[in-house]
Design a protein that fits this description.
The protein is of the alpha/beta class and about 160 residues long. The chain has 5 helices and 7 strands, in the order E-E-E-H-E-H-E-H-E-H-E-H. The termini are far apart.
Length: about 160
């Protein structure tokens, strides 16, 4: 059986279904209650390039930065990760995290100081913002979620203007 090249991609929610263009004919019909969007490979690559990678950093990567990651990775157009500056953090921030990020958000000035001390060359041309969120919240605390949403949105809106 001869495989023909992939000619289009159907995006179904978060699942990407590859459809082969068989014998020069398009599939007759797609029946689904789910929204289907047709995209070329170029469109898919452009969308991937337009995704912003957001890195959230606190001390131990327990409450604040994982909340930031959870809140912003659900937003369309964003990828999010979290890490901590402490050696005892659940996930300690690494050079790979800094390189991956388009924008870095730290919860307190001390986190910015630690990152710049350890990763100064990697952060030279990388936007880094201090959110000024104290360590007094639990994971996904509604007040913490609201504060992160508002402060990060404000920064991202300023960046796009």
């Amino acid at each position: 059986m001869r495989m023909t090249p992939i000619r289009e991609v159907l995006v179904v929610g978060r699942v990407i279904v590859l459809v082969r263009h068989i014998l020069g004919t398009d599939p007759a019909c797609y029946e689904s209650n789910t929204f289907l969007a047709k995209s070329s490979w170029r469109d898919m690559l452009r969308q991937k390039q337009e995704m912003k990678n957001l890195l959230f950093v606190c001390s131990r990567n327990q409450w604040r930065s994982p909340t930031g990651e959870e809140v912003w990775r659900r937003q369309p157009g964003f990828n999010a990760r979290s890490a901590g500056t402490s050696p005892k953090a659940r996930k300690t921030v690494s050079g790979a995290d800094i390189r991956w990020a388009d924008v870095v958000f730290v919860m307190e000035k001390k986190h910015k100081n630690r990152l710049t001390a350890e990763f100064s060359r990697l952060l030279d041309h990388k936007p880094l913002y201090v959110l000024d969120i104290p360590d007094e919240y639990q994971y996904m605390d509604p007040e913490l979620v609201e504060e992160i949403e508002q402060k990060v949105a404000l920064v991202l809106d300023q960046k796009t203007q």
